[in-house]
Amino acid sequence: MTRLRHLTLDRPLAVIDLESTGTDPATDRVVEVAVLTVAPDGTDELFATRVNPGRPIPAAASAVHGIGDADVRDAPAFAALAPVLARRLAESDLAGFGIAGFDLPLLVNEFARAGVAFSLAGRAILDALAVYRRHEARTLSAAVAFYLGRDHADAHAAGADAVAAAAVLDAQVARYGLPAAPADLHAVLVEVDVAGKFRRGPGGAVVFAFGKHAGRPLADVARTDADYLGWMLTRPFLVDAHDLVRAALAAVHGRR
């Protein structure tokens, strides 16, 4: 059993970890998925499986997670797993380490390719890396050592990573006095959008937090560089960032 002594759950928390063919959530594919589902009563269930990506796994990716073509030859394709996985994630808040920038965009794209409905709307998104970036170092192994006082065995095995991410997140709540309820913790971690592509500027205006327009109001960029916003809509940003961009374009140009 995974003991979360500091988070207070009012619905299941699904802690996700993915291993993949590369680092681009728009074009790469899942080779291993793990979901640790923790119920409000403290019981938990770990679902983990290899996934056949339908393409060769690059050597550089195998060097990170140790999964090669032979390991996934007889594994199911994501499309076959998608309905089961969607049911496992239904009615759950979502958590993990670095999920906002990679795992969730990759997962959303895999579900879309499989034709299975999956939405982030109405869920708390708890990224332990977002907490870690505010206070300490960067990697999950370093976070395990810092918060839990032990080595992270089986790093880059999705199941072990999901279990470790849950324990790290729970320890962070205690160390920094963060809200115990996922919805309240989500409100602390997410200023505008889950992945932090935007932030609040003076007067509460939504401004860019990355790229060549960093610090500029989104509304200004919609007026002066609509092509850049069009480019953003082609990239694998999460749906909340896309919705902000579409709304800004609609306000200025009457299109979404």
From TrEMBL:
Matches recorded under InterPro entries: ExoX-like_C (IPR046768), Ribonucl_H (IPR013520), RNaseH-like_sf (IPR012337), RNaseH_sf (IPR036397)
Q: Which CDD domains match?
A: DEDDh
Q: Which residues form the Exonuclease domain?
A: 12-178
One of this protein's GO BP terms?
Answer: DNA replication proofreading
What the entry lists under Gene3D superfamilies is as follows: Ribonuclease H-like superfamily/Ribonuclease H
Domain of life where this protein originates: Bacteria
Q: Could you give a GO molecular-function term held by this entry?
A: nucleic acid binding
Q: Which GO terms describe its cellular component?
A: cytosol
Q: One Pfam match, by short name? A: ExoX-like_C
Name it.
DNA polymerase III subunit epsilon
Q: Which organism is it from?
A: Urbifossiella limnaea
